[in-house]
Specification:
By secondary structure, this protein is α+β, with helices and mostly antiparallel strands. It is built from 7 helices and 8 strands, in the order ααβαβαβααββββαβ. An 8-stranded mixed sheet has the order 1-7-6-5-2-3-4-8, sandwiched between helices. The radius of gyration is 17 Å and the shape is globular.
């Protein structure tokens, strides 16, 4: 049932991506047209970044305004970069931070394994165990920064790894993973709350969170 829900949501989102990218090609001067259209249709889509990495400056800005933060990532590299450094250094103090990463200990044809096989097809330097190692490394990093954080929770999941979600109480950044490209080279959608795309992003996160397991001890009171 969970896989079915992921498939339905991903199909809807993929259709939206194809339409928007065909019209915009990630051009900033046309973002206002997207905003106007989303206001009329209720989708909440504000802009499209041609590459996920292009959104990082705006993500940093929105994190600084967030009351709460939710992150679901395929490996979690963004969590160790400058984008999130104000959060880990204590400059920001949201009410809660929830992070979801794939379970690096899962076996028997896990979704992490399937994603690894996809990446191996287009990245010759990628080995079957590399993604698992990278996820473990990022979890180790978060385990250290979590010791200074209040209301922080890290959980792991073994579900369809179809997208990256960085959401706050105001906005969501959504990247749908391709079978033929790294996430950093995939388009990223910016959605405002309230709106259909924002709701879909939170649904993706909440489904994975419900079916996840703790990766760190319970946060300090």
């Amino acid at each position: 049932m969970t896989a079915f829900l992921f498939g339905v949501l991903s199909s809807l989102a993929a259709s939206a991506i194809a339409l928007v990218l065909g019209l915009l090609r990630g051009s900033r001067p046309l973002w206002w047209l997207v905003t106007a259209g989303s206001w009329c249709t209720g989708t909440g889509l504000g802009r499209v970044y041609r590459h996920q990495s292009s959104a990082e400056q705006d993500i940093t800005r929105d994190l600084s305004r967030a009351r709460w933060i939710k992150v679901m990532a395929g490996r979690g590299n963004v969590l160790t970069r400058e984008v999130f450094s104000p959060l880990w250094s204590g400059e920001l103090s949201p009410e809660s931070v929830q992070v979801l990463l794939p379970d690096p200990g899962s076996r028997d044809d896990s979704w992490l394994d399937r994603r690894s096989r996809d990446v191996c097809r287009f990245d010759p330097g990628f080995t079957p165990e590399l993604l698992r190692i990278q996820v473990r490394t990022n979890m180790d990093y978060l385990a250290h920064v979590a010791s200074t954080q209040r209301n922080f929770a890290l959980r792991s999941f073994n579900l369809p790894n179809t997208c990256r979600v960085i959401a706050t109480d105001r906005v969501a950044y959504v990247t749908f993973y391709s079978n033929s490209a790294h996430g950093r080279n995939s388009p990223c959608l910016y959605a405002r709350a309230p709106g259909l795309l924002y709701s879909i992003a939170l649904q993706q996160f909440d489904i994975a969170w419900t079916n996840s397991s703790p990766a760190l001890p319970a946060p300090r009171p």
